[in-house]
Amino acid sequence: MKRQKLAGAADPAPETLYHRFRIPVHLLLMMLLGIAAYSNTLHSPFVLDDIPSIIDNETIRDLSRFLGGEGRAFNPRRVVGYFTFALNYRWGGLDPFGYHLFNIAIHVLTAWVLYLLLRVTLRTPFFGTGKVHRSLELLPLFAALLFVVHPVQTQAVTYIVQRLASLVTLFYLLTLFCYARGRVLLTPGGGGVTGQRKPLVSFMYFAAALLFALLAAQTKEVAATLPLALLLYDFCFFKPSRKRNLLLGAGAALFVLAAAIVVLKAGKPLGELLSDVNELSRETVNILRGDYLITQFSVIATYLRLLVLPVNQNLDYDYPVYHSLFAPQVFFSFLLLVGLFAVAMVQLRSSSVSGFGKGDELDEDRQVKGELGRMIAFGILWFFVTLSVESSVIPIADVIFEHRVYLPAAGAFTALVAAILLACHNLPTRAVYGGTALLVGVFAVVTWQRNTVWESQLSLWGDVIVKSPEKSRANNHYGVALSKEGRVPEAMEYLKKALQINPRNPVALYNLGRLLDETGNIDAAVSCYEAAVTLQPDLDAAYNNLAVDCLLKGDDRRAIDYYQVVLKRKPNFAEARNNLGFALLRNGKVDEAVAEFKTAISVHPGYAKAYSNLGEAYLAKGELDAAIAQFQEAVRLKPEDAVAQENLARALQKKGGGR
């Protein structure tokens, strides 16, 4: 029996103006909603991992040095992401505005690509080349709108360093889109207006897919799932054929060959190579692989809850590590995930009777149900595949972070929207659009509200401390936020609580030491710094402050030793270079001091204090004009610096008196 036309089927009437321009209208709508939902984040401060990755990261401060090899040396597996931070620094220094604007742009672009990917998916052989039912026509728009306004995405967008999560998703989806477009152009009827195959254009899309895949691989490790995602996509939406099997087999062979070359070039025994793999495939040794996997069953259930009901979001969850599958939280989460996987399998199997032209003899109702069922299956399986790196057997110290669901959310929203449309596909079009608009509007408002938490360090960590009151890191950061507001006594209480919860928290010890320094308790501060560097020998900021305290106590020799320890490990630490120069200058080693100040300036060209100290060194050498030039630059960079102004006035007066 041929398909019967339902009220919801696409109308063969002439195209309206809206239908002619619906794609740019849809893209514009996504952009406007994305900008509106994140408009209150443009001045949100750097937080948590933003500090070491951006604020304290000298490699991003000089683009030529970054491209010269320092960027790859800093983090070889995420060099593309850090390159974008270097661009931001080049354009606007450490003003968070540009970084947030960049993140919002990536987020909107990613939503656009998801929309286009889902549109081209509806032209794959599984769906045929005929008119698309209005339920399916709505799916790309609805899924992309949810992606752009859903509150669970806030951490990947507003938390600046998590651009790595959004950027890898952009490249990931671009890879899928270019691959899908190239495949469609190779199928009969997929060549646009003419319906002819276009192998040359298809090849260009495949080349672009390879480029985006390489960019994804250099942005974040989750790109390792791309081959599986491509296989899943091809399996769901393209007919199995001998040519396809040969193509996929060749790809797998190339992958194995590349892996073999890497192994042979390493020149190591097999046992040592396996040890290297074990080390690379874990971020922490404090969590067993089995315990991490068990815990992730509960974590993934939490992600699913956030996707459906985004309440009680938290930057820093105090999440337990489970050790038994039969812990109630884990067991019921495991059952939920098994059930969800079973739904995907059932939908995959049941939809096979309606795809690839098999459904032409079905009535349209069954045809549409089968097509939506295939999208449900694909979305669920996408969710599991893209979570497999961070939520499986690769232990990561933080078992849960909301930004990790950014890429999986693309599949989750596809499945969720397909399920909603499956339930509502016989309802009037206006009712479906109205319900869609209401849900998108509510999520946009909740996203904007969630972003108000990110307006300051104090508001963000205040939110965290309410939800994770017994977490050491939360208390530490809330204490730091309080100290920046001048609330030092309160800050010290939270830092002490952080150390009560975890006495081996080196960062909390360092921060407590800083506050003790501010209150004049130098001996106690030194004790904190010494304990901090004992626990974390590479905590360079603590060494730097130890050296400063030694200078204050008149122990210049010890201070110089501390600075040299830091600079041996971190030669581009501008503050330590400047402070070492000050210690050398105070001990009469003027030429050595000048060299240190110049190095500090070369590393950090905007470092006003180093210019001022270099001016002092030139004064000590009797080079008055050179000293004045350095003081003038210090004042230009930091007009409010009273010491630099005083030094400049003194030097000018000395020069005038000399005449």
UniProtKB/TrEMBL annotation:
Annotated keywords:
Membrane, Repeat, TPR repeat, Transmembrane, Transmembrane helix
In the record for this protein, the TPR repeats are positioned at 472-505, 506-539, 574-607, 608-641
Question: Could you tell me which InterPro entries the record lists for this protein?
Answer: O-mannosyl-transferase_TMTC (IPR052346), TPR-like_helical_dom_sf (IPR011990), TPR_rpt (IPR019734)
Membrane-spanning segments: 21-39, 97-118, 138-154, 160-179, 200-216, 222-238, 245-264, 326-348, 375-394, 406-424, 431-448
PANTHER family, per database record: PROTEIN O-MANNOSYL-TRANSFERASE TMTC4 (PTHR44227:SF3), PTHR44227
Instruction: Write the protein's name.
Output: Tetratricopeptide repeat protein
